[in-house]
Design a protein that fits this description.
9 strands; 19% strand; elongated; alpha+beta; 2 domains
């Protein structure tokens, strides 16, 4: 579909609404464009405090205008002949949900769940400065599971070593659990590019699973 791609654009996330404008999921830009191109969804765009709806073709046309007058306000993907803005929000037209899946157990979601905070000293660090710690060490039978892995800074990780927190005289700042919702949404809401999501994630929308 696309001849060349701007990496930063494809790295963006897109909030998916059902046809009743309820938030149901977060997807990558590739998936969002696939839904738009097949006329399974439309773009919902926040413009001067109001939301406007566009099908794929009209969004391509609007993107040309946005590229000329507000190029820094969007992330972009280049096609053969023009640039297209990555939408922040899309709305499904013909079905209410995408297939439901569990929150993935991976490093990114663990960092997001713990908000990049060492779970022993409570200090916040960059991802590159944090490591993952097995609360019950693997050498003692500890498993790789939501309830046994937390973020830890190098100092705390070294101090704890191959011991349990109790043996090391350390205390977790909170009990690690599997997130009920995708923890990445909390990171996204802190970024200016995703401020248009807020209205759809308030109140009852927080009880809907986001992936």
């Amino acid at each position: 579909m696309f001849a060349s791609e701007v990496k930063s654009g494809l790295d963006c996330s897109v909030l998916v609404l059902n046809k009743h404008y309820m938030a149901i999921r977060i997807v990558g830009a590739r998936r969002a464009f696939s839904l738009l191109f097949r006329d399974l969804a439309e773009v919902v765009s926040l413009e001067q405090g109001r939301y406007s709806n566009y099908d794929f073709q009209s969004w391509c046309e609007v993107s040309r205008f946005k590229r000329d007058f507000e190029p820094d306000g969007h992330d972009w993907i280049s096609t053969v002949n023009f640039y297209i803005a990555v939408p922040r929000i899309i709305r499904l037209l013909f079905y209410d949900r995408l297939p439901r899946t569990d929150v993935k157990f991976n490093r990114r979601n663990i960092f997001a769940r713990d908000k990049n905070r060492c779970q022993y000293c409570g200090k916040r660090y960059r991802t590159s400065e944090l490591s993952l710690d097995h609360i019950i060490p693997r050498s003692l039978g500890g498993k790789a599971a939501w309830g046994n892995i937390v973020c830890a800074c190098p100092e705390c990780n070294i101090r704890k070593g191959g011991r349990t927190p109790k043996e090391a005289g350390m205390t977790l700042i909170q009990k690690p659990v599997k997130p009920a919702h995708n923890p990445i949404v909390h990171i996204h809401l802190g970024e200016q590019r995703y401020h248009s999501w807020q209205q759809f994630l308030d109140h009852a929308y927080w009880s809907v699973e986001l992936k």
